[in-house]
Every structure is written in structure tokens, then in C-alpha cells.
Amino acid sequence: MLVCVLHDRRPTQDTREACHAKDDHHCEPSSCGDIHNISFPFRLNDDPKKCGDQRYSLSCENNVTVLHWYSGKYYVLAINYGNYSIRVVDANVRKGNCSSIPRNSLASYNFSYYDDPYSTSQYRKYQNRTREVIQLSKPIIFMTCETRPVNSSLYVETAPCVNATSGHSFVITQTLNASDLWDSCRIQLMVLISSSIGTKDKNSSYIDIHNELLYGFELSWVQSYGRSGDYCSIEGDTNEVYCSGLFYTILEGDKYIVVFYDGPLFNTILGVSARCILAAVVLWTPTKVIFGIPCVVVLLILKLKRRHLSMYNVIEEFLQSHNNLMPIRYSYSNIKKMTKGFKDKLGEGGYGSVYKGKLQSGHLVAVKMLGNSKANGQDFMNEVATIGRIHHVNVVRLIGYCAEGSKRALIYEYMSKGSLDKHIFPKEGLISLSCKEAFEISLGVARGIDYLHQGCDMKILHFDIKPHNILLDEKFVPKISDFGLARLCPLDDSSLTLTAARGTIGYIAPELFYKNIGALWCIQMKPSDRPNSMNKVVKMLEGEVEYIQMPPKPFLYPQDMPVVDDEDDSERTLSSSLPLKNEAQESISLIQNPN
């Protein structure tokens, strides 16, 4: 009889200390001003490179510990290694000056589950298998209103500390729903405060709120989701960080060490299988168990294999029917050779991983290895069917592809400057693009979209235009990429019906997710108020300013609001955007003008 034993074994304290010391390379703690014992995962910029984690680098400026993050500057007030949190305050908020407000807009939607080193919440797990979500920080919202809201305790007036250039200025510390937003009010800024001292009294004064801004807000360096896709939480009894997936793992510094099987996936799939096997052992005779379990396993393997083969056949039939396309078909061995065994990894996302490679001709390429899922199979065919048939200076070129069973890859020309989001949303430092470069990039993207809509024998609708999908070459020439959501339709078709919204929330048109305002304040809510073709956008960008017609003001456009400058106390204005709660439509009709 075959007996499987799962060991619930956890590393001893000595083992944990040894692993932690190995990650920290025996570095002595650093200090800066009032912040002492700066140790793993944190490090100061002038510490040896072997110390700490580069993602948690801090700087010491004028004897003050500073965190540069998302183009913002934050003073570090405390680091609590006991609960894995760091407390920071916006550098523009000053004590004794209630007119000073945060310079940078920051909300929960700024945080990425997988890529961001910080989180505004923590998950704690207890022996009874329950999990508790602890919110370390919560948002408050600065608004301006043309008229004073009537009988609303949500709105706390900021006068006389902060005054709007027109109308009234308010701040909201409670949860804001779309129905709570008055028609005459505009959202200006969204920032975070600490949940531990957050004001619960709706009748609080703005002085109380400003004191909360001075206290700062907490961030946790324990990510709710690990970089391997695991679900991470803090043990309520031992205060140690564990991550659960197919395997139970313990987080030691920057390493994931497998400990034992556990977690949601085990409880749903492997857990059910284990209970079924246990029932078979109890009810069946040992002989039936010996022959029955292998048969069940074989049947499951055959079923999974048949499912994958069906998808492989669909992809192969598609490639055979489109064998006149320009891209070259490579074998998987060629892919391994050009990437030198997938040695140089450029990035990773939900679709899979991207590696740097070199063709025999010496040209550099980017190789996207797609994950083994049904959705990625459809994305693969979409990319080959769309980008494989076009060639334009502002559209990334698909050089080749690979399709061997579960191995699927797309080979693109290499873009040395990376994606646009890394230049306009840098996590450290200022935006590196000049106004001229930003304009040329905007014009190039518009030309690329115009070519997709009108320059091919079939109209190509991308459905996911965003900075992350705009790649830049060594001369900062923009190229549109990632056609996984693209659709083809005849040039003479003026409408396209979708069964669900496509794209990334925050970048799609309001008519797809009407209650989500989007990532741009200047968006026109009515399609009729926008240019009816991308060709007109190109002409607007290339033409003289005097000939551009002034569009109507959008539904939500930024109002001016005074902010005291950090250095010379001169007034400036700010505006920021806030995506509101969205609600998907079941069926959408997207109107496309043929001109």
C-alpha cells in the first residue's frame, strides 16, 4: 500500500535567524536623525549594496530620513519592526501651518498587489484558520464645491486654513460613494492618514484633520500577495510572516522557503482529493485501493492532457490558416538559444515573462513567454492575427513566434527604453521626459492608433491603450504593443458589439465603465464631444494652436486650489484624479466613426 505523509514542520528559531543573517549579510544597523536601527529590509542609499533590499532604500537628507516613492517625497517618522510597518508623512505638510497640505495624491488604487513593495493593509492568520484584515491607513479627500453642500456632515470646511480660488474647499474623512458626490463638487486630492488615530467624529474640525496629516500614515512591507502569487499573512500567535499557495512557505528576508502543503489551493483541490482518498481507504478493501487510486490518477492526467491538446489543436489550426503572415516561426530550442536559457529577464506580468534575446543576425529582441492558460492561448492568436500583419514606425514589430504544445512565445523588436509608465510614473526621482519628448510621444501614439484604425485592410481596435503598453526605443520613438485584447473588424463597419468591457480600469472610455471616471480629468463624457477619428487628433497635434477649437469643459475637470510651495512658500495650484467605483455593463455597443 502506498502511504503519503505530509509533514507540518516549521523551521526552528536558530534556522530562521541563520536565514535572516544570510539575507542581511551581517550588516550593521544604520541611523539617520531620529530614526535608529535601520536594518533589513530597509537600507540607506550610502549603505553597501549587499545590505538590505534595494526596493526599500531610504535616503538621509539634512539628518532626516526620507522615502522617495511614486515621484513623492515623504519623511520617515518611525519604523516598527514588531508589526512590519513604517510611518511616513508628506514632506509638504508642516507643523504650525494648517494651510500646508500634501503635495502628492495617494490612494489604495496606486498600490499594485504583486509589484509594489508596500501595502496599506495586513492579513493576520490565527490557529482556527481565520484571517483578519487590518487596515493600516485610510483615505481622506480634498474637494472644491461651487456651492456649500446642504445638511451634509461628510464635508468638513477647510477655511480659513485652505481656501479655493473659487467656491468652497472641503475635506471628507468618511467613505465616499458616488451618490455622496454633489454635482457642484470636484475632487482635488486624495491622501492617506493613519487608521489608528483616524477621526471617527463627523463633526471634527479641519485643525483635527491637519493634525492627523502631521501624524502621517502607516505602510506595511509585508505584501498581501507574494511575487510568486502566494497569499501572505502574519501569524497571530508567533508574529511571523507566512505565505500560502500550493506549497506552504515562510518568508525569510527576500527568500521563499517551502515548508509544507497548505493554503487555499490545497483546501479546495488537494484537500478534496485527500478526503476522497481517505474515504476510499476506509470503505474499500486494500486491493481496490491499490488498483483504484492509480486508475483515478491516470484518468485525471488523461483528461487534463486532452483539454490542453484541444487548445493546442485550435492554435495549430489557426497558424496553418494564417501561414502567409510575415512573422517567422521558431522552435522552442531556438527560443532557448536566443535567450541563452532565459538568462536575462526583463519583466513579468499576468501573461507570463519577458526575456532579452539576440538573433543570429545580432539584433536584440524581447521574447514574451506566455503562460499555459486558455486566455493566453486566445491572446496569442490575437497578437499573431493583428500585429503580425502590420508594419508601422509607431507599432512594435512582431518578428516571430513559437508554438510547440504548451510552449508559446512571441518575439518582438527590443525596446531599450522600456515602457512609457516607467518614465511618467517613476517610483523614485522626477519625471525624466522633457515637454518636447512628451509631445513627440503623444503624437507618435496618435499616429500609431490612426494607422491601426484606417491604415490596414482591416480595422484593428486595440482596447488596452495605456502607458504600460507603449514601448520606447533608444530615440524615445513610441511603439504600441500588447494586442492580446485587440479585435478585427471591416473598415466600413461603424459599430462593434462587445459582451463585456475590455481594457484596464482607469484607461477605458467612460461609456464602457460609466461610473469610473478614468485616469484623465480631461476626458469628455459624451463621445460626440471628442474628435470623431484619431486622424483628427493627429491633425490637432500637428497643426497650429490658433486653429484648434475649444472643447466644452468636461464633467469632472480640476479646479485650482492653492498649495504652499515647499521652498519659497509661493502659491501654486494642484489637480488630481480619482477613479470612482465602477459597475460593468453586461453588453456594450461601441460606436466607431468610419472617418
TrEMBL record:
GO-annotated cellular components: membrane
Cross-referenced SMART domains: S_TKc
Protein name in the entry: non-specific serine/threonine protein kinase
TM ranges: 277-302
Chain residues that bind ATP: 368
Name of the top EC class for this enzyme: transferase
Cited SUPFAM superfamilies: Protein kinase-like (PK-like)
Coiled-coil ranges (or none): none
GO terms of molecular function: ATP binding; hydrolase activity; polysaccharide binding; protein serine kinase activity; protein serine/threonine kinase activity
EC number: 2.7.11.1
Record key words, sorted: ATP-binding, Glycoprotein, Hydrolase, Kinase, Membrane, Nucleotide-binding, Serine/threonine-protein kinase, Signal, Transferase, Transmembrane, Transmembrane helix
Catalytic activity: L-seryl-[protein] + ATP = O-phospho-L-seryl-[protein] + ADP + H(+); L-threonyl-[protein] + ATP = O-phospho-L-threonyl-[protein] + ADP + H(+)
Localization terms from the record: Membrane
Biased composition (Polar residues): 573-595
Membrane topology: Single-pass type I membrane protein
Segments for region (Disordered): 559-595
Protein kinase domain segment(s): 340-595
UniProt xrefs under Gene3D superfamilies: Phosphorylase Kinase, domain 1 (3.30.200.20), Transferase(Phosphotransferase) domain 1 (1.10.510.10)
